[in-house]
Amino acid sequence: MFENLADLKIYEAGKPIELVVREYGIEPKDIIKLASNENPYGPPPKAIQAVKQTANLMHRYPDDSFYELKEGLAKKFDIKDSNIIIGAGSDQVLEFAIHAVMPKKVLMARITFAMYEIYSKQFGAKILKTPSSMHNLDEFYEIYKQEKPEIIFLCIPNNPLGECLDAKDVYEFIEKIDEETLIIIDGAYQEFASFKDKNKEIKPKDVLKYQNVLYTGTFSKAYGLGGMRVGYGIANEFIIKNLHKLRPPFNITTLSLKAAIEALKDEEFVKIGIEKNFEEMKKYEKFAKEHNLKYIESYTNFIVLYIKNSTLIAQNLLKKGIIVRDMASYGFDALRITIGKKEENEKLFTILKGLIN
Ligand SMILES: *Cc1c(COP(=O)(O)O)cnc(C)c1O
């Protein structure tokens, strides 16, 4: 039994605050979590209000058409409701897409979001990876020509490395791919990338003209709703209609739905968070230069710093109540650090300085 799952790994989520409380006896208020790319400024105030007001409707299922949320997204992206599917996180939309295709082969960058591989292996797919760790579209195209995978994943910008393809290169690439292959553009950090550099902006509306492109986005990162589990997929009606065949009813909760609807109305909160993210990121770059650490230029809300003995350093940070992501399991010594609030970052710099010297 379960032979088909033999070489499937369990997804390693960022360590939760609760674990550090239990294992190190540190008070929750003294723990700094910079491991899961959450919004350090919290949820949008309007979403908090809405959830409080909706608490007395917990016994009701949500409006399963997700009408109001889709209206909000449709307006934001200048598309139609029928181009949108809602998922419990964009993870669930990825799952629908992979399930819908049941691919024999999938193609992705060597180091990218782990769920692409995990979901694909559930259907026995062969995983093809580019030689380069970061996205290199020439390599993608070479492998595509030889192998003709049914799905190609592009993580723009890429988690966990932070690099980002130029939108024009992505569109050129799409034009060269047969309509038999589904291209999934994971835009989990697009809000950050398009703020930093307009050349990186993938407009969901622009993917609608392709028969074979699915764009996914999430409320978990810039919108500060990681714990509510809301994401979306955007594509032409044919793709969306088929993905809906796989969606269970009420796949997000009554409270999540309200939170996401209101978060969309709190654009100012989201924008300020993104601005602060890049202000703080500059301090990480300065810290890296001062300590001779290499880093990857990031278009997201995290940064990868190359640090010797990263596993040991991550463990020592944890003992001080700071949770970061060790990259050693990807085969190189580095830390992926979510950009926190000013005070959080300063505390990290102070402790990290002591550990690397
Ligand atoms: C966080 C993340 C997601 C999805 O997160 P959800 O919380 O499931 O919406 C998808 N792709 C990447 C690359 C991510 O980093």
UniProtKB/TrEMBL annotation:
Residues 29-349 form the Aminotransferase class I/classII large domain. Pathway: Amino-acid biosynthesis; L-histidine biosynthesis; L-histidine from 5-phospho-alpha-D-ribose 1-diphosphate: step 7/9. GO terms for molecular function: histidinol-phosphate transaminase activity; pyridoxal phosphate binding. It catalyses: L-histidinol phosphate + 2-oxoglutarate = 3-(imidazol-4-yl)-2-oxopropyl phosphate + L-glutamate. The modification N6-(pyridoxal phosphate)lysine is found at K221. Its EC number is 2.6.1.9. Belongs to the class-II pyridoxal-phosphate-dependent aminotransferase family. Histidinol-phosphate aminotransferase subfamily. Homodimer. NCBIfam families: hisC. This is Histidinol-phosphate aminotransferase.
